[in-house]
Specification:
The protein is mostly helical and about 400 residues long. The protein has helices at about 1-35, 40-50, 60-70, 75-120, 125-130, 130-150, 155-170, 175-190, 200-210, 215-230, 235-250, 255-270, 275-315, 320-345, 350-365, 370-385.
Length: about 400
């Protein structure tokens, strides 16, 4: 017994330390290579944590994807934080989030400095051109097994189709997600002859179980603005830009041209699109503004995930709440498909994006172990070369 205790004291901390290094290494790599927006980031995380490293089962990964859609903030960043907490507790939570966010923030800060110093951005649009069709193929390739896993019954298939149609007709994603979950819970309660009114307690259960100085009035205003957005924003980075337009452009804090350029930087750099606020903060108040804006937009995500993560497994263990999770997972897949459709609709203007998409699809389905970051980078380079024709 004494020997076992000694081994536990010496060996387990080493395991934990190595686990944290592994978390840092993975999410730093993803932070550098994860181009293409949240859907592509989720696809890459699945490839690394489910397929390669076996950290999570397909079902639990799907549950975490569904959980990120239930809380405000950047979905892929929150998924990284969830995985970090699953693998390394609260230290893993912080390390995963920090390592995934920081590469994007640093690259964006460099672009912000160039922009403020020279009055414009480098010519990056030709490289953005080929990213979108490659990203669409990466996402579709990744969600195919998730969709098969989530469509467990005919009932869930019907919920998924309805969610897809509602999303296509412009209904807010959060309403589609919660609506799908509550419908499934109601049906499960009826099937198990339980009080259907219990469905209404879910939200309560989730809640219970002008100087340049760093603390100048300008920075305080930036911090509070981005903290508010990070705490209430549901949806993709494109929804973020709508918030920024009403919060900053309408009040004359930045120009619409600066916002558009911030969007371009957010799309071109790896990692979360929310790092665009680093660019904006820099334009408003230099490096201090960039730091305080970045902290403000991402801080709520760490808090929300820390509160929600312990509940995910408990929900999966309850038949009633498992029905809710299953429906949310199906609706999440439907929303991702709609995002792909919208991206494709805007990107396919001639034969070039179609060719890039077909080549990307062939590579992904022929070489199933290929790193999706290489496919996206290849799409970017191919797009640039095709524009020269």
């Amino acid at each position: 017994m004494a020997r076992a205790n000694i081994l536990q004291i010496v060996y387990l901390p080493c395991m934990k330390k190595n686990g944290l290094k592994e978390i840092a290494s993975l999410f730093l790599k993803l932070g550098v290579t994860a181009f293409g927006g949240p859907a592509a980031h989720i696809a890459m995380m699945r490839q690394e944590t489910v397929v390669k490293k076996k950290w999570l089962t397909e079902q639990h990964f799907l549950d975490l994807v569904g959980a990120t859609n239930l809380i405000p903030g950047p979905n892929s960043t929150e998924l990284a934080i969830h995985i970090g907490q699953e693998r390394g507790g609260w230290r893993g939570l912080i390390i995963a989030g920090f390592c995934f966010i920081m590469p994007s923030v640093l690259v964006t800060a460099c672009f912000a400095w160039l922009y403020k110093s020279y009055g414009g951005l480098p010519q990056i649009q030709p490289f953005i051109y080929g990213i979108t069709p490659a990203v669409i193929m990466v996402v579709l390739f990744a969600i195919y097994p998730l969709a098969k896993k989530s469509l467990q019954t005919i009932e869930l298939a019907i919920i998924g189709i309805v969610a897809l149609l509602l999303s296509l007709f412009g209904y807010p994603g959060i309403l589609v997600l919660f609506g799908s979950g509550f419908v499934a819970m109601g049906l499960a309660a009826i099937r198990h002859k339980r009080d259907a009114a219990a469905v209404t307690i879910l939200p309560f259960l989730l809640i219970n179980n002008s100087g340049q100085g760093f603390f100048s009035s300008v920075n305080v205003k930036l911090f509070l603005s981005f903290l508010k957005i990070g705490a209430i924003l549901y949806g993709s980075g494109y929804v973020l830009f709508a918030f920024l337009d009403s919060e900053l452009v309408a009040h004359g804090i930045i120009s619409r041209r600066q916002l558009i350029d911030a969007i371009a930087v957010g799309q071109f750099t790896p990692g979360p699109v929310f790092s665009s606020v680093t660019f904006i903060g820099y334009q408003v108040n230099g490096i201090n503004g960039a730091i305080i804006s970045t902290i403000g937009i991402f801080f709520p995500s760490f808090i929300f995930v820390a509160l929600l993560n312990p509940l995910v497994r408990k929900m999966r263990g309850s038949k009633l709440f498992a029905s809710f999770l299953n429906a949310v997972n199906v609706a999440s897949i439907a929303l991702i498909i709609v995002v792909c459709y919208q991206m494709g609709k805007g990107a396919v203007t001639n034969w070039r994006p179609v060719l890039i998409a077909l080549i990307s699809a062939v590579i992904l389905f022929r070489f199933k172990t290929v790193n999706s970051a290489l496919v996206i980078a290849g799409g970017s380079v191919l797009g640039y070369l095709l524009l020269l024709i």
